[in-house]
Amino acid sequence: MTVQLHTLSNGFRIVTEHMPGLKSASIGIWVNAGGRHETQQQNGIAHFLEHMAFKGTARRSALEIAEAIEDVGGYINAYTSREMTAYYARVLQDDVPLALDVIADILLNPAFDPREIEVERGVILQEIGQALDTPDDIIFDWLQEVTYPDQPLGRTILGPSEQVSAFGEDDLRQFVQQYYGPEQMILSAAGAVDHDAIVAEAEKLFGHLAARTAPLAPAGLFLGGEHRAVKQLEQAHFTLALEAPGYRHDAIYTSQIYSMALGGGMSSRLFQEAREKRGLCYTIFASAGSFADTGMLTIYAGTSGEDVAGLAELSIDEIRRSADDMSEAEVARARTQLKAGMLMGLESPSSRCERLARMVAIWDRVPTLEETIARIEDVTLTKVTDFAVTLCAAEKAAMALYGPVEKTPELAALTTRLAA
């Protein structure tokens, strides 16, 4: 398998990986524009724009966009995150030029028909309503908000319904003008692909774009806080966040391995102690999420109103205990889980395609798998224990609670317990 990277004269980047033996390919464009690039007045516009991508162009109607890909047995989709927006397709080998043409069309020639804007506005408002009605979705938005208060990184990707209700064509075109320049785009392809052919097509489709500098996203500052929403639900939902490294930080793999050992699987500390030994919950996990300049170690659990206080205290106690008695076997298991999850995922061209784009966005290059594995293997028990000690000394934390959570200790009491 060969990774190749090329940059057009206007800054548009193309990265490909040929995967022998495949008859299909994944191809897409990742744009360095997401929720954290929005002003407060724009909150939700990146996601709205992603929805509008499939609602028609100067050349194709919404139906023709769908038919162009599905007529050849492929699929096309998109998503918006806090740092990127992606538009991608999976097709057979001979249809890669078609997929690229369709993706280029929806990015460069959006119609923004007022009637379609109104239709999609309704769809997004339904999506917002659905999220509000889903406790284990909305609680993570609340956690993000109190972790990064009054910052773009803390705002919901969907945006508030009152702003979504007001967005129009001018708002969409302004965001495109700000952030959809060639230097902000990465064309990524993996599978049955020919690098030189894709570069030639990209030159024809995107080479004419004038380079332009996008505004920088504000820095993310982990400040912390608490959001507590008391409601009579069947379950009490508990989330806790402590600051973790951003994905450019040397300790990124240490935080990921620590989170795996703490709550990344059935053998993890939180799962064994909270579910297997005490029966306090059905779902509990820990994860390490990263952004360019900051990150979050997050714990989530759902339990009864009677048990949520004990579960919150147990979570704190497990972090404290991990700083004292984490074992070599636990770290080795977590390292293996992290490597296996990455390598298994990369058997899919879609996963490889996304990894290529993300690596180029982060490093402007694609580290080899051997380099990545070496960094994972370099995480020792001492590094993991030191990271746990740092968590215990954290001066800031964030917590979001939803449901029958009246008996849950205040965040200040939990952080005092963590440092005890």
Textual characterization of the structure:
- This protein has helices at residues 45-52, 62-70, 96-108, 114-132, 135-147, 161-164, 169-179, 195-206, 252-263, 269-277, 308-325, 328-345, 349-363, 369-377, 381-392, 411-419, and strands spanning 2-7, 13-18, 24-31, 75-80, 85-92, 185-191, 225-230, 236-244, 283-290, 295-303, 397-403.
- Helix 9 (252-263) packs across helix 12 (328-345) and helix 11 crosses helix 15.
- It has 420 residues and is an alpha+beta fold.
- The mean pLDDT is 96.
Shape, per Cα inertia axes? globular
- Name the beta content range: 15-25%
Largest sheet: 6 strands, mixed
Order of secondary-structure elements: EEEHHEEHHHHHEHEEHHEEHHHHHEH
**Number of separate strands:** 11
Content-based structural category: alpha+beta
Tally of contiguous helical segments: 16
Going across the biggest sheet, name each strand in turn.
1-2-6-3-5-4
The helix content, as a percent range, equals 40-55%
Question: Rg to the nearest angstrom?
Answer: 23 Å
Identify low-pLDDT runs: none
Oligomer: single chain
What is the CA–CA distance across the termini? 51 Å
Mean pLDDT: 96
